[in-house]
Amino acid sequence: MSNRAVLEVIALDAEDAIAAQAGGADRLELVTDIAADGLTPSRETYGRIRAAVDIPLRVMLRLTDGFAAGDVDALVRVARELREEGADEFVLGFLDAEGHVDLVTVERLVAELEGCHWTFHRALDRVADRDAARKQLADLPGLDTYLTAGSAAGVDDGLPTLLDEADAARRGEPGYEPRLLVGGGLRLDHVPALLAGGVTAFHIGGAARPAGWSAPVSPTAVRAWRTAIDARA
To answer: Name one Pfam family in it (predicted).
Structure first.
């Protein structure tokens, strides 16, 4: 497999998925209801997208807007249904009322995933203590990625944090082994500094849709990102 930087694109349906793959995406994050910042798609939507493309798919596990888990039993049922449909990669992350990782919920879902690879998403940008959260999550099976902007406000504010966490010297620390997937207010002009700092994965949603979220993914826009992240020395 190529060691090029990973480009992950948000897909809402099979049309998005086909366009993103055509533009050079390596992986898709599957969500619905982007107005709620991305919720779990139906198993039928997953099945249609899985049939349409052959790149990896990570499916969001979240039923309500925000980072509170809500109905955990319902989350577990949805995770089980998606596993039955063939899903084998996921995205999740929940916080308690104090802004700490809701470890009980996360552990329950991870047990349901039975070793599948998964991303802890931008809940990391709203957690009370990033370093403590990483250490709490360090031993959970399947966790291989953190989706983060470095700040709740986005990459502009979070760039120093991202560069610190991407530093190769930190990779031996507990909780810093998972890959950093940068997304959230990410622009093409951020890419050179992030690449130079050791970031090897990029996540885009609106940037793949120049005409807005009401329009499908543009393969041309995705290709521009593919070209930019492949330009590293």
So the answer is: CutC
